[in-house]
């Protein structure tokens, strides 16, 4: 079995550079330039509509939760608020970070800053982290956003359904940054001229959290923390559930998103929370296509892609057995079969990924 070092400072990082996997050219489905240009056109209207629905719902639901506090009748409202705070903000952080959700840059940046705060992801750090994720998707030693490593840390993944590991790491990183320090791995992908911004944002966040805690102490109630902070824990489950679907159990160290990313058909509510990121192969192939055009992009290129999973449950029927096998045999992965209408995988780039290893 291949032993992997997922750190950005280890031997696999060096190997990725030496073998040409780092910052390489990826496969893209052919699509006429005129059609691609039309798909990449940005618009404020869809994202404004969704932002009004999201923030309006959050204000209304939190207001009802506060009015019913501390009765248990408030619990369903806090659970709903938590999903919007701790999960819907994940996709808003993601799309606005790409700068594609709105046509107006200021709107993208405002929502990006709010969503970054809710998800406890420093907006400077994570802008560069996610750029690396797209440049070197699931390349071991290069991608800082691999969720399901091999062998998979299933207990850690379980804890993250309650936000425990990621949120605690976020708060610890925030305090470290506020003290004027960067993590050594962060420094590998954040340009030196941007690093002071990481520290400045972290210090503002610390002040917001301190004000919230002081208010909670003064009120002798955790109610302020139910609005700011705690929803990152009790509302995380949906973004973890959908995030695992993106790449878990698939091939590593390949240069074709059809091999390492997964498209899943999901219900309308999850699509709103997830902002169409269930079309994940399409998003990685063409990351500058706005979220509201991804269903259209999917229809144009699905002849060249593996068949989507038909539901969240169907995706987990594929993912769970794969993760269990990877506990025993780290080299196992699910090979995404292509339809007869698709261009084949390049054997010269993906020789190891074209035959699933046997135990």
Automatic annotation (TrEMBL):
Residues 70-310 form the Fatty acid desaturase domain. GO terms for cellular component: membrane. GO terms for biological process: lipid biosynthetic process. GO terms for molecular function: oxidoreductase activity, acting on paired donors, with oxidation of a pair of donors resulting in the reduction of molecular oxygen to two molecules of water. The chain crosses the membrane at residues 51-72, 153-172, 204-223. The keyword rRNA-binding does not apply. It holds the Pfam family FA_desaturase. It comes from the Bacteria. This is Fatty acid desaturase domain-containing protein. It comes from Albidovulum aquaemixtae.
């Amino acid at each position: 079995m291949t032993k992997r070092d997922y750190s950005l400072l280890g031997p696999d990082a060096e190997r990725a550079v030496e073998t040409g996997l780092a910052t390489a050219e990826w496969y893209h489905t052919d699509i006429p330039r005129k059609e691609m240009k039309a798909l990449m056109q940005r618009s404020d209207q869809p994202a404004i509509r969704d932002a009004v629905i999201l923030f309006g719902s959050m204000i209304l639901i939190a207001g009802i939760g506060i009015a019913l506090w501390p009765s248990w009748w408030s619990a369903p409202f806090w659970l709903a608020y938590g999903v919007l705070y701790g999960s819907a903000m994940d996709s808003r952080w993601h799309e606005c970070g790409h700068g594609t959700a709105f046509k107006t840059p200021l709107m993208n940046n405002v929502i990006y800053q709010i969503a970054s705060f809710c998800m406890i992801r420093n907006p400077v750090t994570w802008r560069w982290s996610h750029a690396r994720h797209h440049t070197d998707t699931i390349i071991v030693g290069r991608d800082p956003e691999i969720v399901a490593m091999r062998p998979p840390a299933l207990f850690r993944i379980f804890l993250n359904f309650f936000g425990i590991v990621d949120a605690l790491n976020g708060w610890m990183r925030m305090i470290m940054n506020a003290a004027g320090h960067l993590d050594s791995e962060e420094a590998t992908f954040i340009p030196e001229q941007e690093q002071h911004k990481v520290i400045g944002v972290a210090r503002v966040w610390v002040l917001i959290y301190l004000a919230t805690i002081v208010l909670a102490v003064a009120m002798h109630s955790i109610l302020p923390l139910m609005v700011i902070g705690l929803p990152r824990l009790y509302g995380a489950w949906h973004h973890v559930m959908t995030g695992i679907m993106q790449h878990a159990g698939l091939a590593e160290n390949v240069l074709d998103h059809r091999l390492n990313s997964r498209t899943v058909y999901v219900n309308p509510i999850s699509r709103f929370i997830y902002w169409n990121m269930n079309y994940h192969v399409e998003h990685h192939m063409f990351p500058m296509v706005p979220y509201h055009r991804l269903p259209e992009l999917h229809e144009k290129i699905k002849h060249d892609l593996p068949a989507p999973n038909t539901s969240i449950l169907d995706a987990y029927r594929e993912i769970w057995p794969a993760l269990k096998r990877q506990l025993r045999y780290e080299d196992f992965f699910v090979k995404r079969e292509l339809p007869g209408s698709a261009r084949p995988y390049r054997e010269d780039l993906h020789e190891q990924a074209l035959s699933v290893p046997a135990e």
